Amino acid sequence: MNNQAWWIVAVAGLLSVYQIWQPIAGFVPPGLMPFESLLGLQPATYFRPTHLSWILCLGFLVYPLAPGGWRRGVDYAAIAAVLWAAWRILQFDYQSLDHLLYGLNPADYAAGLIIFAAVLEMARRSVGMVMMIIGGVFLLYALFGNYLPDVIATRGFSLERVVRFQIYTGAGIFGAPIGIAAGAVFSFVLFGAFLQVTGAGKFLIDLSFAVAGRYRGGPAKASVLASAAMGSISGSAIANTVTTGALTIPMMKKLGYQPAEAAGIEAGASTGGQIMPPIMGAGAFVMAEFTKTPYGDIVWMSLIPAGLYFLSVLLYVHLIAVKSGFKGMADVSGIWPVVKEGAQYLLPLVLITGLLLQNYSPVLVGVAGCLAVVLASLLRAGHRIRLKGLVEALRMGAVLAVPISVDCAVAGLVVGTIGQTGVGLQFTESVVSLSQGYLWLALVLVALAALILGMGLPATAAYIVLSVMTGPALVELGLALITAHMIIFWLAQTSNVTPPIALAAFAGAGVAGAPPMRAAVEAFKLANGLFVIPLMMAYSPLLLGGENSWWDVAQAAFFTLLLIVMLGITLQRFAFTHLSRGWCLLAGSCAVLLLLPFAQLRMIGAGLSVLVLVMNALDHRRSRTT
């Protein structure tokens, strides 16, 4: 291992240890810990700048400007500048009124500018140029908004005022988004890293193949199940598409799926991992903070919609397999041998699910999950994690957290600008005005905004920006706060699978060797539940909790399931056998009736849906007997 690699392991490993220690330190009574000011539980004003600065330093090592030469010296200079800026920010006296009366002193002003530059540059390196541009645009808006047309104009703020608000208050870069990334999100990213290092991730994939591999289109169905399990933990649809897809996509192609279909299936399933309880990527932790809803309640609310989404994807996979005459896999391990070999890895998953549902702190649950994975690996010889594996998990967790934390820092900049300029209120008024008071039109506008933002922002950052700017408009139009945020959270995932910029589908196309746009179209067809299910959330009691009883939710789920089935057989023109054009038109009409928020029309749609399925089943039976 070269010196560069050692530096990365040391910086990343120590960051992970620091992050694990912080929630544990909270249990130590004040006064009992040596060096308490350094090792004790840090308040947000110290913890968040420390976390982000550490992330930025690690980022400059992991994402260098160039492999070597004088440009590498630029990275080291950037690290030194970030460390100095962090020291100045940690020394800042928030109790003094001088900075409010006379402005920041030159050193604190310079420190804030360094953090601005470092965050935007690391966003460019770790996430992409578009992320940096979006952060820069909002920064310029705060500075020069007074030169814009009246509809979107705001008073222009001086650069010193912007730096003071964004860096030295809890409403900008060091606001709630980075606080969530530094707490719950980091602990669960680290949990995912421990799962990968110990072999638990491979166990989940093997179990998916054992459950679904022998059925029609087995590899595709196993891909859906594996992506549901792994996508929730990985926190990234793109990463899950590449890692799980490296195994499942070649198998799907070998079975007979077209490369674009295989890529689309994997992308659609991996995107669903972000909405799948119990972890649901990073966005659900942000939702819990923004709506002040216990995380366990969000998990309960998400169970039925997430289940319906994966049923939708499985339905499309099954229809393609039956329509094309695909068979299952011949050499598939039985479920029991796979479970027997890796049953110990189910214990950490059961533990974190139970703790989350009991509304324990997500940060502590994530740390407990890491410890549980390590202990589970020790239960069986041949699976026991060694010191090298522990170090690798600590390194991997911190490195994976770099783009997520930088995302949230830029999102914090955007949210801070929205708060400082008041543009969020203007945007809310615009959405309400353009929708003319119609909720469905407002949802269309939010969906379009989600697609545009998602072309450059990861799903979590897109959700943060959308929730701040469009959430109040949806609430004003009659939705409950948690319902509005859940809808926005789902719509924020759509950019992964929607042309023209379908990030997860493009990643799957690279693995499958398929044309990217064809893969995006296939992914869009498979993942239409990301649009349909949020509409049903808005117009039916699909979310558990609140005033919705189990019976109300069951009825809403039934209509949604029928809607998904009718859409599926319409797009594929196949149910039990091929559908004629007339029956296909009737199935599409049933989908429309089931979508409309009127009980009588939904009942008619349900009755006609049953008729379509029964008649198609009879056609299939007649064709087999002749």
Note the total helix count.
29
Number of strands: 0
The average pLDDT is: 86
| Class computed from helices, strands and strand pairing | mainly alpha
The portion of residues forming beta strands comes to: under 5%
Cα distance, first to last residue? 69 Å
Sheet with most strands: none
Helix content: over 70%
Topology record:
Elements: H1 3-25, H2 36-39, H3 44-62, H4 70-91, H5 98-102, H6 106-126, H7 129-144, H8 159-167, H9 176-198, H10 200-212, H11 218-234, H12 237-255, H13 259-272, H14 283-291, H15 295-324, H16 335-342, H17 346-357, H18 362-377, H19 387-421, H20 423-435, H21 439-454, H22 459-476, H23 481-491, H24 503-512, H25 516-526, H26 529-539, H27 550-572, H28 581-595, H29 599-625
Molecular structure report:
The protein has 626 residues and is an all-alpha fold. Among the domains are: 42-168, no CATH class; 184-404, no CATH class; 546-626, no CATH class. It has helices spanning 3-25, 36-39, 44-62, 70-91, 98-102, 106-126, 129-144, 159-167, 176-198, 200-212, 218-234, 237-255, 259-272, 283-291, 295-324, 335-342, 346-357, 362-377, 387-421, 423-435, 439-454, 459-476, 481-491, 503-512, 516-526, 529-539, 550-572, 581-595, 599-625. Helix 13 crosses helix 25 (516-526), helix 15 runs parallel beside helix 27 (550-572) and helix 28 (581-595) runs antiparallel to helix 29. The mean pLDDT is 86.
